[in-house]
Amino acid sequence: MYFIAETKWDKEAEGLNDDERIKIKCATKHFEAINQSVNEVVKYAWVNAYKDTTKGQPFPQVFTDDRYKDTLILERL
Fold first, then answer.
1. What pLDDT shows up at residue 70?
2. Residue 1 domain-assigned (yes or no)
């Protein structure tokens, strides 16, 4: 498992500048492409800060709990 996080410290999605939004959009497309080329499910999540993702849970929970609103679930069909 690889973990890559680009955090936008303490910013909500509405507070991101255009450059930050483009980076997130590119990452989303990147992981969608990877998902199409592998035999496993790939999940990508944008987070605004590490401390906000834990919510009392181990950090990997953000990738396994679909209740996290900023988690984009990519599934191979």
1. 54
2. no
